[in-house]
Write a structure and sequence with these properties.
This is Uracil-DNA glycosylase. By secondary structure, the chain is an alpha+beta fold. The protein has one domain. It is built from 1 helix and 3 strands. A 3-stranded antiparallel sheet has the order 1-2-3, with no helix packed on it. The radius of gyration is 11 Å and the shape is globular.
Length: 57
Amino acid sequence: MSTQRIVCQKCTYYYVTWEQGKPHGCNAYGFKSQTIPSIVVRNSSKMDCTFYKQKQR
């Protein structure tokens, strides 16, 4: 596990769903959630996200 925090909003796979109750989405893992995807991944697998890829500006 790394000590660096993953900021999903800076990841190419993150998107805003605009759905009430599930505003955060992750195309890499293929889910929508109420909380930030990296937190969901961390809580369910006890590991950091392995798909994180920073957006190109």
